[in-house]
TrEMBL record:
Subcellular location: Mitochondrion
A GO cellular component entry from the record: ribonucleoprotein complex
The name this protein goes by in its record: Small ribosomal subunit protein mS33
Keywords per UniProt: Mitochondrion, Ribonucleoprotein, Ribosomal protein
Organism: Saitoella complicata (strain BCRC 22490 / CBS 7301 / JCM 7358 / NBRC 10748 / NRRL Y-17804)
The keyword Ribosomal protein is assigned to this record: yes
């Protein structure tokens, strides 16, 4: 009895059946699919958990500190001289001053209902 090696189509059918049974991908052309990378554990959650999540901005910090300072002074918990001056957000102060200057020159935002879109259209 002479043993004949199985044909290529028969081997591919066997591979396909095995991949279905063992839930692996069937890739007869041996093309690069990226499955090796896709099977790896995701790194995103681990990395994001490593760093502290803070959504605090300078403006929020200044506001919170000044609120806490005012509460302490109001309750006579701490002397005003011991706590120091209230914090100032210089960027916000600068923005407010620039807006005041613009308004005085007539370059500020229009009053509500007086803008470009409100005035265009039907002319009465």
């Amino acid at each position: 009895m002479v043993l004949v090696p199985p044909s290529v189509t028969r081997l591919q059918a066997l591979q396909k059946t095995a991949s279905q049974i063992f839930m692996t991908t069937f890739n007869p052309t041996n093309a690069r699919t990226g499955n090796k990378v896709l099977r790896q554990r995701l790194k995103g959650p681990t990395i994001s958990d490593y760093y502290v999540r803070t959504n605090i901005t300078v403006a929020k910090f200044v506001k919170g500190f000044n609120k806490m300072r005012a509460a302490l002074i109001e309750n006579n918990t701490v002397d005003e001289r011991a706590i120091g001056n209230p914090l100032v957000n210089f960027e916000e102060e600068q923005r407010i001053k620039e807006n005041e200057v613009r308004r005085r020159r007539g370059k500020g935002p229009p009053k509500k209902g007086q803008g470009k879109r409100a005035t265009s259209g039907k002319k009465r």
